């Protein structure tokens, strides 16, 4: 766009110069005519003087040429100077501005296998060195146990073991005709000497240990006068041949008080063990039941 504008301005200027040149030529022609008229007038007025002082034809040509050539030379010089100035201005305007060149340095990529292997080795070495530095730093910042404040560990409470136990002689209710005289005072109306209770115990305790504790710490379900002072009555003996304790009577009801086949038996979790009560170790959650039988366990579900 700038070039087109500059060329258009140059065209207008040249057109103006040509117009000025024509006008100058017209002025020169007018000046020549005026000179010729003046010469002719002076020639008619004083012929003698004119003849005496009239210049020769060669002299007139020189005068006319000098008069005409001076304005023309001046106009040409002016036009040349102006055109040169315009052309210089157009070149300066139209010349594209040079932008500073940016120098970009590109690192050539490795093309040979040896160069690639070398770079891979360098990268691996740098990674190992970085990892070693991190490991060393971590090890240095670790706090030794000696620097930590002494903290007393919170003692953990041992897990509490629990089981349930009950004492039942309800089989006597169906065999009262076999019951010894006076023993009916110790049989509760529902036959439950001790209803089911939950007992805490320690690891390693036996069924015999649990029975002794609950009898010492509880009354019968009927709250009779016979067990209010010392708890439920319990009598047992040790059998050296079997290395076990044998339960003879609970709450004043003994073996063979209700027939020759009567006595006390126990079961754990619904099963009658084939060992004595002092040999059976209680486990957490066990269900212990002491039952009085009038028929060697057949009336309470035990296999004879």
Describe the overall structure.
Helix 1 packs across helix 2. The longest helix has 44 residues, at 2-45. The strands form two sheets. The chain has a four-stranded mixed beta sheet, with helices on one face. Strands 3-4-5 form a three-stranded antiparallel beta sheet, with helices on one face. The model is unreliable at 35-55 and 58-71 (pLDDT under 50). The radius of gyration is 72 Å and the shape is rod-shaped. 42% of the residues lie in helices and 15% in strands. The two termini are 126 Å apart. The chain is α+β, with helices and mostly antiparallel strands and 304 residues long.
Which features does this protein show?
304 residues, alpha+beta, four-stranded mixed sheet, three-stranded antiparallel sheet, 5 helices
Gist?
The chain is of the alpha+beta class. Helix content is 42%, strand content 15%.
